[in-house]
Design a protein that fits this description.
Layout: H1 2-23, H2 25-39, H3 41-48, E1 54-62, H4 73-83, E2 90-91, E3 100-105, E4 112-117, E5 122-129, H5 133-142, H6 151-179, H7 185-206
Antiparallel strand pairs: 1-5, 2-3, 3-4, 4-5
Length: about 210
């Protein structure tokens, strides 16, 4: 009876380890490529030509707010984005120049900077260019949190939590599967202790 129970646990551990690993594939590639690009940024700039994006004006229009225009800064930012058909995740920098309202519309394709010149009655829209797939991957790597109440960003935040849970399960189930295989215990222990030891040493050195 006990043997049958352990057999069922082994079966489900292997199955869940397999399918959670397959589920993690796109996120693991995003995190791996992003980590490599951050670790070797100087080489990418030198040999691939990755350079910081620049703000380019893509649109400029006259804008005279109606009498019903909101009074608070946040509401004004939302109203301007709706007026531009650009409603979506955004942030309002704390540092604002007098007579202007600056809004950053967040996007993986390149952030857009919207500036309302109150006295000039104009709105200028700038976008970060050129587009870079590598910057998009870095954007996905660091995109986290529930501070943007828009579906894609909330769904991504929920998925990141799910991915984190899968990664923890992946590690635990990997240890379980290794421990259940007697013929692989020695080399498994060597790699497990080696990984833990290297992590501990590097953590100690980084804390100095």
């Amino acid at each position: 009876m006990t043997r049958n129970v352990w057999g069922q646990i082994d079966y489900w551990m292997r199955l869940l380890h397999l399918y959670t690993g397959l589920f993690l594939v796109p996120w693991m590639f995003v995190y791996a490529i992003s980590a490599i690009s951050l670790n070797h940024h100087a080489l990418l700039v030198k040999y691939v030509g990755i350079t910081p994006p620049k703000w380019e004006t893509v649109r400029q229009l006259d804008f005279t707010p109606p009498a019903s225009f909101p009074k608070t800064r946040d509401e004004r930012a939302n109203a301007i984005l709706r007026h531009l058909d650009m409603d979506g995740p955004h942030m309002i920098p704390r540092q604002q120049k007098p007579g202007q309202l600056l809004v950053i519309r967040i996007s993986g394709a390149g952030n857009r900077r919207i500036t309302w010149f109150v006295r000039g009655h104009t709105i200028r829209v700038e976008q970060q260019r050129p587009f870079s797939s590598l910057r998009l991957i870095n954007f996905l790597h660091f995109r986290c949190g529930y501070n943007q109440s828009y579906f894609a960003f909330l769904a991504w935040a929920v998925t990141v939590d799910l991915v984190a849970g899968c990664m923890m399960f992946w590690s635990i189930s990997g240890i379980y599967i290794w421990a259940r295989q007697r013929n692989r215990r020695f080399w498994g222990a060597v790699f497990l202790i080696g990984g833990l030891g290297l992590f501990a040493v590097l953590l100690f050195l980084l804390l100095q």
